[in-house]
Amino acid sequence: MTINTKNLRPIESTDLIRMGRPNDGGYVIPEKIFSFCDGLLSYGINKDWSFEKDFWKKNPNAIIHCYDHSVSFLTLIFFTIKSFFLMIVRLVLLDRKRFEKEFSGLFVIPDYFNFFQKNRVYFKDRIWFNNDKNSKTVNDTLTEIYSSGAKNIFLKMDIETAEYKVLDDIFKTKKNIVGMAIEFHKIDEYSKEFNLLIDKILEKFYIVHAHGNNYGKLFGKNNFPSTIELTFIKKDYVVGPVKNSSKSYPIDGLDQPNRFSKPDCKLIF
């Protein structure tokens, strides 16, 4: 099955901003969501919560719940040690860009404890379609953040193909998801699942931004990226006439390649 790329062209949006660190880990979202969004659910953040920090700066009263089963205090210590030795290697090789990245890794432990407190909570659970092996469903996490006081939720997801197993919950919930930034992986291999999910999502949401992740491979006659980041906003929050964007993607001055040493992915819808 081929990907219906025409469905992926975003609508025209004039208030897009980039949140998170440079290159991999940053996402483009509409700034208007901060006027009505009071909660962020973030799945699969590993050791990078730069997006969540920027979200919090925009809305200091937001409740932020993050989920990732792969991080523990031990893995943070190992990551810090690894960053230290890699930093020396980058210094010897005069690789400034990678040196700066490794240097920032030295501060991951104090940054973790500084950020995750009060309304900002890190749950060491896997996001899955059931509760096996320390897993939570999307519905579980929505119930949890609702009980904490957030009623209008933005959802960010990067869970390495598990998205195809868990996203059905967003179609069943009565809780208010105002928007989403989702990284879809291996869409060439999961083309059937991907097309079905996009069709269902587009019943209630518009795509406002699309960006190809250049860590993944390209496929098809138009060299479409196999991993793509899509940002959605609920149709209830879009006022006025809607038209497809005429922009070229990636957008200059807004998008950045995930892997800075490779050209960004040009999207042909």
Quaternary structure annotation: single chain
Shape: globular
The H/E string reads EEEHEHHHEEEHEHHEHEEEE
Q: How is the largest sheet built, in terms of strand order?
A: 5-4-3-8-9-13-10
Report on this structure.
With 269 residues, the chain is an alpha/beta fold. It has two domains: 1-70 and 124-269, no CATH class; 72-123. It has helices spanning 50-58, 73-92, 96-104, 108-115, 138-147, 163-166, 168-172, 191-201, and strands at residues 16-19, 27-30, 39-43, 63-67, 120-123, 126-127, 135-136, 152-157, 176-184, 205-212, 218-219, 224-225, 228-234. The strands form four sheets. Strands 5-4-3-8-9-13-10 form a seven-stranded mixed beta sheet, with helices on both faces. Helix 2 packs antiparallel against helix 3. The protein starts with 15 loop residues before the first strand and ends in a 35-residue tail after the last strand. The mean pLDDT is 94.
